[in-house]
Each structure stands twice: as C-alpha cells, then as structure tokens.
Write a structure and sequence with these properties.
Distance between the termini: 30 Å
Shape: elongated
CATH topology: Serine Threonine Protein Phosphatase 5, Tetratricopeptide repeat
Largest sheet: none
Number of domains: 1
Number of strands: 0
Low-confidence stretches: 1-15, 17-26
CATH class: Mainly Alpha
Strand content: under 5%
CATH architecture: Alpha Horseshoe
Order of helices and strands: HHHHHHHHHH
Number of helices: 10
InterPro entries: TPR-like_helical_dom_sf, TPR_rpt
Length: 183
Amino acid sequence: MYKSFLYFLVLILFGCSQKQEATIDSPKKQVNPFYEKAFVFIDNDQDSAFYYLNKGKDVFIERKDSFGAGKCYVNMAIIQENTGDNFGSIETSLTALNFLNEKDFSHYYSLYCNYNNLGVASTNLKNYDDARRFYDKAYLFTKDPIDKLMLANNIGIVYHDEKNYGKAITIYKKLLDSIGSKS
C-alpha cells in the first residue's frame, strides 16, 4: 500500500501528461479539439480522457501528424498504467514509439515520458530487467534534474522490489544527498 502511494505521489508530482501539455506543441500547430478536451478530464475522469485521446489520435493520424498521434498514445499508456492495465500500457507505449522520432529534439519529452511509463509498468509486472532498461533509455531523453531524480528513484524502487536492498539504499542515499546539497 505504501509503495502504491509513493508511485501515485510521484506520478502526481511529476506527471508527464501535465508537463507535456504545457511544454510540447505539435510542429503543425493545428488545433485538435479531441486532444484538447482530453486534458479537461485527465485528472478526474480518466475514462473520458482516454476516450478523447483515442479520438484525438485518429485525427492526428488522419492529418499525418505522427508527433500528435505519439503524444496521444503516450498519455493513453499512462492512463492505462494508472488504472492497473500494465500489459495494455506497455502495448500502447510500444505503439507510441512508432510515431515518435528519437532524432527530433521536440519529441524528447514525450519519449522520456513513454520510456518512464514502460519502466513503471514493467516494474509493476515484476519485469525488473526490462524496467531498468526502460529507465536507462528514459535518461537519454531528459536534461531536467527533477526528471533524473525521479528516474533514479524509480530504479531504486526496482532494486528494493528485487530485495537488493544494498543497491536500493545506495541510490536513495545519493538522492537524499543531492536534495540536501541543494537546500
């Protein structure tokens, strides 16, 4: 229960869907009313948010806007993970990778969120090697120090769940030291 609370707290504090909306715009800058409407529901009605993201994804695909479609898939995958559909979340996140470009800097935040989500869902399924691999991949797509702290924390959780307490404690101590040195 405590671990679930920590996951939830981290997702709320550093939720990709909220930051993504504020910082990433589709290169084509065309309004997609379904995509916009999804964020009205994202915090309180995830079924409706998922519905509108799915409709928005179809509009982006019709417009040949792969970045917009990729962002929809990433947010849909995060919703699936939040509601306990870890297998579906992984499948949706893997689909998102077909729409995101690892060589395009404007896609980096979505890629970071997507790989982090793959790590979280893999951790939930006890696929710890995959989780670490996805978290390591997420590191490649962020320069944000808070994002990096969150990824380190997530890797610490993986080691904790594997009962590799020594590695988990080492990571947690480094996190505490880095936070303490900044205050």
